[in-house]
Amino acid sequence: MRQKKKYFIATRMGLIQRSKIRELFERASKMKGVISLGIGEPDFDTPANVKEAAKRAIEEGWTHYTPNAGIQELREAIVEYYKKFYDVDVEIDNVIVTAGAYEATYIAFETLLEQGDEVIIPDPAFVSYVEDAKLAEAKPIRIPLREENDFMVDPDELLELVTKRTRMIVINYPNNPTGAVLEKEVAKAIADIAQDYNIYILSDEPYEHFLYDDAKHYPMIKFAPENTILVNSFSKTFAMTGWRLGFAIAPSQIIKDMVKLHAYVIGNVTSFVQVAGVEALRSEESWKAVEKMRKEYAERRKIVLDRLKKMPYIKVREPKGAFYIFPNISETEMSSEEFSEWLLEKAKVVVIPGTAFGKNGEGYIRISYATSREKLIEAMDRIEKALSEVK
């Protein structure tokens, strides 16, 4: 009998952990009647004018390679956008167009970090930062985000973690998974630390337009332009997740080297997708669609918060951004993973255990309200019923 072939896999692949979020989705996909509050994806369609722009671009021959850093017009539109919305001056040489914020983050880590460098990453935080740090052979240092501090980075704690090896701080506000926003004074304090100790800030800002109540967003390039690599995406803002369109803004010397790596990773972002990106940023129609989405998210947020506040064993702090709620479930005396498994089996509702985002997420779950009101109401009914039966 022929022996099964053994494949030799690079050691670095053993460093990467598979996303617990994906594992849950795969389990849920095999069950009938499941409502998912797990996916971090808008349920809205891409604005019609953006789709039409992509179709026109294909007809007009936008089917070939583009410059590695992105087409001139899209980079100019990104520059205009930051001036218009935030009164921040960005040069075109400070911009690279990427395959979503995922790629922008990956090439920033690979460009700026090397073996032995330390990168300070919030806990809980979006799953890719730690894995990207490992691939860059850097050491992830976790800084806890605490509920009593509205899940903001504490500048004093941050300062205590800075060593001679600290090369980068990762910031993500409005925050995934907590829905927190960063107050202006805290953003300034983080910027001051980065400047004083010559540390990079990787600021991941894809949820910037989904803010509620009196919340405001301050891009980190406003406070530390020479230290910041700002990563952003069209995915959440314009409901363009499948288009894979994002960008990074950084000092031109850093962008130059990010472009070098990007050229070997993907070459360039799909040409007609870039043309659609120009339409998204410059058209009034797109921004009307964004505001419509934000208002709908605000309504859904209210539905879910109002229901959760009345449920036994659940404590919830009102998030001010993104489309996530991060309830505290520790009174159930189940771990985050146990609770998520129990809820899937008992109520057929998918939520993400807080520990998927780091050890500090223990005692919490992430709920996404990027789904219809009908499904949210039904999911809340199911959760409430399941909790009422907890002894």
UniProtKB/TrEMBL annotation:
A GO molecular function assigned to this protein is: transaminase activity
Cited Pfam families: Aminotran_1_2 (PF00155)
Query: Which InterPro entries does UniProt cross-reference here?
Result: Aminotransferase_I/II_large, AspAT/PAT-like, NHTrfase_class1_PyrdxlP-BS, PyrdxlP-dep_Trfase, PyrdxlP-dep_Trfase_major, PyrdxlP-dep_Trfase_small
Give the superkingdom in one word: Archaea
Concerning Gene3D superfamilies, the annotation shows: Aspartate Aminotransferase, domain 1 (3.90.1150.10), Type I PLP-dependent aspartate aminotransferase-like (Major domain) (3.40.640.10)
Q: Which residues form the Aminotransferase class I/classII large domain?
A: 33-383
Q: Which cofactor does it need?
A: pyridoxal 5'-phosphate
Q: Which UniProt keywords apply?
A: Aminotransferase, Pyridoxal phosphate, Transferase
**EC no.?**
2.6.1.-
* Oligomeric and partner information: Homodimer.
Can you tell me which family this protein belongs to? Belongs to the class-I pyridoxal-phosphate-dependent aminotransferase family.
Q: Which PANTHER family match?
A: ASPARTATE AMINOTRANSFERASE, ASPARTATE AMINOTRANSFERASE-RELATED
This protein's name: Aminotransferase
List the top taxonomic levels of the source: Archaea, Methanobacteriati, Methanobacteriota, Thermococci, Thermococcales
